[in-house]
Amino acid sequence: MTGEETVADEAEQADEARAGPRIITVFNQKGGVGKTTTSVNVAVCLAAFGRRVALIDLDSQSNATANVGVTPPVASGAYHLITGRAPFAECLRPTPFAGLRLVGGSDELAWADIELALGGQPEAGLTRALQTAPDDLDVIVIDCPPAPGVVSVNALVAADAVVMPVMPSPHARDGLHKAWWNVNRVRSNFNQQLSVIHILLTLTEEGDLTQRLSEDIMAEFGNRVMPVLVPRDNVVIEAAGRDLPVAVMASGSAPARAYVRVAESAAGPVGARRRRQHRGP
C-alpha cells in the first residue's frame, strides 16, 4: 500500500468513526437533583444552536415529555424503542420547538427493566435501537430514570458523553459517589470508549455549607466538574408547571444562562459519535 493510499484509508476510517449522532446521557440514581431539568434544557438549547436533536425520555414518570409540551403517555415511544417493539423513526414525534424531536415516556417503562433482563444482552437494547437512528440527527439527549436499573445501564452503554447533575448537599454527595461507581462499572464492562463524564453542580445556593461542599466535589473530581453552577431558582419550578423549559420561558434567568453554557460544553462537534458494535464484558 502506498503512502497516499494509507492516508486516504485513515481519513476514511476517521470519517466513519465520526458517523452518527452524538449521544449525551443525563444520569444520576438520586432523584431531585435536576436531572430532567438538565436533559430538557440541554436538548432545547442545542436545538436553538442549530443542532438537530432528539430527546429520549426513559423515565416512566414522563416529566421530560411533558416539559417539552407533549402530553404523555405517547402511543409509541421510549418503551417501544428500548424493547425493540418499534424502530426509531416510528417513535419520534415533533415538539413545539424547532429542531427538537421527542421519543416520549410512558408508564410502560416501569416494566422495561424486567423485560430487558429476560432477554439476551439486556444492557444492549438501546445501543441496537440507536444504530438505526435517522441520518438527520446531530445529537441525542437521554433522560434516565432515577435508579441504577437495566434501563439506565442501557443509556450509559449507548452514551458518548454522560452528564451527572448533583446538588451540593451531604446526601447528594454520597449519591454522587454511588452514581460515579456505577458509571465507571458500565464503562469498564460495556462501554470502554466512554471518556467524557461531566459532573454538573445544580440547585446551588449562597452559603458556607454549599460553598464548602462544592469545593470538596471540585477538589475530588477535578476537571470532571463542569465550570458552571446552576442556581436554585423558583423560575425553574414555574417553568416546569407550565410544561416549558426554563431556557424558553425565562431565557434571561440565571438557570437559563447556565444551561446555555452546559449545552455548549456537552455538545461536542457535529457528528462526533463513535459508531460501534456492542460487545459484552
Description:
The structure is a single chain. It is built from 13 helices and eight strands. It has 281 residues and is an alpha/beta fold. The protein has one domain: Rossmann fold. An eight-stranded mixed beta sheet has the order 3-4-2-5-1-6-7-8, sandwiched between helices. A hairpin with a 5-residue loop joins strand 3 (92-94) and strand 4. Helix 2 (35-48) crosses helix 13 (254-267). The model is unreliable at 1-18 (pLDDT under 50).
Radius of gyration: 18 Å
Low-confidence stretches: 1-18
Strand order of the largest sheet: 3-4-2-5-1-6-7-8
Oligomer: single chain
**Considering DSSP H and I runs of 4 or more, what fraction of the residues is helical?**
40-55%
Q: How large a portion of the residues is in β-strands, by DSSP E?
A: 15-25%
Q: Could you say how many structural domains there are in total?
A: 1
Q: In terms of structural class, how would the helical and strand content be classed?
A: alpha/beta
Average pLDDT value? 88
Number of helices: 13
Summarize this, please?
It contains 13 helices and 8 strands.
What's the SSE blueprint?
Layout: H1 3-17, E1 22-26, H2 35-48, E2 53-57, H3 63-67, H4 78-82, H5 88-91, E3 92-94, E4 100-103, H6 112-117, H7 125-130, E5 139-143, H8 150-158, E6 161-166, H9 170-189, E7 196-204, H10 208-221, E8 225-231, H11 234-241, H12 246-249, H13 254-267
Parallel strand pairs: 1-5, 1-6, 2-4, 2-5, 6-7, 7-8
Antiparallel strand pairs: 3-4
Helix pairs in contact: 2-13
